[in-house]
Amino acid sequence: MEISAACIILVPILLPVVTKLGVDPIHFGIIMCVNLAIGLITLRWVPALFVTCKMGGVTIEDTVKALWPFLLSLIVALLVLTYWPSLFCFMPRLFIR
Question: How far is 76 from 22, CA to CA, in rounded Å?
Fold first, then answer.
């Protein structure tokens, strides 16, 4: 699913549940965006890979090989973000006040 469509559909459904569980809405938004970015570059979202390969003039195999470092870094960032939310949420909280 497209990232913007997923946000429009899923956020109104999941946000009340997440806030009832005590998760900060900003933290939830960041986690959701990173998860959707991971989903966009995995092989399940092949149309996006085909489009980028066609635009760049490269093969799908070369693109997938080049995506591994980015995928691993996104997964590590997601783990850090999930278990250390204050690291990522301090800057948005400065602008809210």
Answer: 23
Q: Token pair of 88, please?
A: 């990522």
Instruction: Give residue-wise pLDDT tens across range 58-94.
Output: 988 888 888 889 889 989 989 998 888 877 777 777 8
**CA-based torsion, 79, 85, 88, 89: positive or negative:** positive
* Residue 21: both structure tokens together: 């569980």
Residue 60 tokens read as: 């799908």
- pLDDT, one tens digit per residue, over 3-60 is 888 889 999 999 999 999 998 888 898 899 888 888 877 766 677 778 888 888 998 8
CA distance 91 to 74: 20
- Residue 68, judged by CB atoms within 10 A of its CB (0-12, 13-18, 19+), counts as exposed
Q: Is 51 left (phi over 0), alpha (psi -120 to 50) or beta?
A: alpha
